Amino acid sequence: MKDLSGKQAQILEFLREFIEDKDYPPSIRDIQEGCGISSTSVVDYNLRKLEEKQMIRRDREISRGIEVLGARGRRPRVVEIPVLGAIAAGQPIPVPTSDRWASDAEDTVSVTEDMVRGKSNVFALRVKGKSMIEDLIDDGDIVFLEPARSAVDGDKVAVWLKDRGEVTLKRFYHEGNRIRLQPANSTMEPIYSAPDNVEIQGRFVSSFRPAD
After folding, report:
1. Considering the entire predicted model, what is its pTM?
2. Whole-number Cα distances in Å, 2 to 6, 203, 207
3. Of 130, 156, 170, 207, which is the active-site residue?
4. What SS3 state is found at 132?
């Protein structure tokens, strides 16, 4: 750990856990509160030391501009992920055809490999709606998914509802002779459907909130 002090090691571990959990860096205030540090100036001092030791890189022009570096001070590899459109985290929304999920990239987003858990063949969708808010997926977020045709109970998946010609992001459950698509929002009702009407398109990998 390059002879880190106890406080520097604590901050570095907090940074890694925060980014792993939320997929974006903490603010100085987040670090102060999360590590129980007396002032933001103490946080800033220790961040400078971590930067000198090539453990992090900082962009002081933005409030969450902290990047944890890889081994020997290397920047984590950046990958381009295709953005294939929008997905409902609310009521299902229509899309032209399920074929688009495999080929119709309208944009790309650049992220580090860590943000997609090192997986290849990942695609991205923009979220519309708030039905997954209790899983920390909000309207306007970008979700990363890996192509999948099956799921186990509790997986977050993008599913194509054939009878509606619509797609949605929900938690997937087998329930007797039907499928329950469960929102992560206690104010919203689940969607029930016959198994042969539900086509899984992708399994959730991670998400992040684009900068305003």
Report:
1. 0.62
2. 12, 38, 31
3. 170
4. coil
The proportion of the chain whose per-residue pLDDT surpasses 70, expressed as a percent, equals 86
Q: Say which residues have a Cβ less than 8 Å from residue 151's Cβ, sequence separation at least 6.
A: 157, 172, 200, 203
Please give the angle made by the CA atoms of 160, 137 and 105, to the nearest 5 degrees. Answer: 50
CA distances from 6 to 16, 46, 55, 56, 57 (A): 16, 10, 14, 16, 20
Which of 131, 156, 206, 207 is labelled catalytic?
Answer: 131
Locate 178 and state its tokens.
Answer: 């039907």
pLDDT tens for residues 16-74?
Answer: 888 878 778 888 899 999 999 999 999 999 999 998 888 888 877 776 788 888 654 45
Q: What CA–CA distances, in Å, run from 168 to 17, 86, 151, 179, 183?
A: 29, 9, 15, 14, 10
**Pairing assessment for the beta strands 166-175 and 191-193 based on DSSP bridges:** unpaired
Asked whether the CA dihedral 31, 36, 37, 40 is positive or negative, the reply is positive
Domains in the chain, please, with CATH?
6-73 (1.10.10.10), 78-208 (2.10.109.10)
Q: Is 63 designated active site? A: no
Express each pLDDT in 70-117 by its tens digit: 654 455 567 788 888 788 876 665 443 445 444 556 678 877 777 787
Catalytic residue status for 5? no
